Amino acid sequence: MALRYGSRSRPGTMVSTWLNGLVSGTVPAATAGFVAGGYSVASGNFATVDKFAFSDDARTTLGTGLTTARSYTTGMANSGTAGYVAAGYNASWAELDSVEKLSFADDTLSTISAALSGTRYSPTAMANSGTAGYVCGGFDGSDITTVNKLAFSDDSMSTLGTGLSVARNYSGGMANSGTAGYVCGGFNASGTRYSTVDKFAFSDDSRSTLGTGLSATRYLVAAMANSGTAGYVAGGKTTVLVSTVDKFAFSDDSRSTLGTGISAATEALAGMADSGTAGYISGGNTGYSLQVTTVDKFAFSDDGRTTLGTGLSAARDNLAAFANSGAL
Fold first, then answer.
1. Phi, psi of 11 (to 5 degrees)
2. Low-confidence ranges of the chain (pLDDT < 70)
3. Strand partners, 309
């Protein structure tokens, strides 16, 4: 029987990870997804962190949440090690440049010493697990193209020489770990919506732009990925809210659109994935004051969608999500 403490996509790697844990006297943390922060009209900004166990989709809420309540934020993960929540607004509606780190070993939270190159809200993030995470775009009084890179080895921060192809916020980020990351869609302050998908090669951080973007211009989207296979961009807004899910095959970057979208047209949501098994689209709103607790789950085997019986602990939008899928 195969031992599973991470993604099913590389069973040899997972057994090695588990055995190394025995040698070192530790056992790898059980795989799970995390949904952090966010906003609701009723409650303002949240510090809450909900945790979904991938073994049975059961939800718990961490006893200690983010050190700073924040919304319009973003998340990424060094799978097997730690997740990160970056930028956004705090409870006083001041823009943030800080990055919080959640250790998967014990679910403790801290704020790393390195900050982003400037305060901002509504960026997106993606990660080359084991190597580095990227915080992309956003708004700091004007739309920006900036991409900050966080080295996972020492949590140091740098800024790429080449940023996004166009300044924008409210995009979605996803990654084919070990190969490339993608920044999808978005919006700028003049009201332009984008279908643009920028691709960053992790080998040298060079950027290209896909010939085929999203199926429609849209922003306030969520994205997640089945690393090694495909990425998904869900929901958001064109001129109206949509339930669309676009799928990008990592083998050739071709795009298709799923026959079944998310369960309701929703914007300002967040995505995370148990790579090799399923992706989750969480929270958001179906209208400005209509924040939701919904968590939709897409099985990667057939892209079938179900909706979890237990959603978020509180309805909220403009939140962050990330996942511990074990070794990618």
1. -60, -35
2. 1-28
3. none
Burial 219-250 (b: 16+ CB within 10 A, else e): bbbbbbbbbbebbbbbbbbbeebbbbbbbbeb
Residue 7 is predicted with a pLDDT of 34
3-state secondary structure of 283: coil
The answer to whether residues 16 and 24 touch, using CB atoms and an 8 Å cutoff, is: no
The CA-CA-CA angle for residues 32, 36, 40, to 5°, reads: 135
**What pLDDT sits at residue 29?**
79
**What pLDDT was estimated at residue 28?**
65
Closest CA to 182 of 76, 303, 70: 76
Residue 133 to residue 124: CA distance in whole angstroms: 11
The answer to whether 196 and 209 are in contact (CB under 8 A) is yes
pLDDT in tens, 296-322: 999 999 999 999 999 999 999 999 999
Residue ranges of domains in the chain: 33-324
Which DSSP category does 68 fall into? S
Give the SS3 label for residue 278. Answer: strand
Candidates 80, 128, 320; CA nearest to 228 is 128
Q: Strands 147-151, 132-136: parallel, antiparallel or unpaired by DSSP?
A: antiparallel
Q: Give the CA count within 13 Å in the CB-facing half-sphere of 156.
A: 3
* Rg of the chain on CA atoms, in Å: 18
Question: May I ask the CATH architecture of the domain 33-324?
Answer: 6 Propeller (2.120)
The continuous run of DSSP H or E covering 247 comes out as strand 245-249
pLDDT for residue 327: 73
* CB atoms inside a 10 Å sphere around CB 23: 7
DSSP 8-class letter at 219: B
pLDDT at position 8, please? 32
C-alpha to C-alpha distance for 285 and 264, rounded to whole angstroms = 10
Could you tell me which of 230, 228, 260 has the C-alpha nearest to residue 245? 260
- pTM across the whole model: 0.92
What pLDDT, on the 0 to 100 scale, is given for residue 23? 42
Each residue's pLDDT tens digit, 175-190: 999 999 999 999 999 9
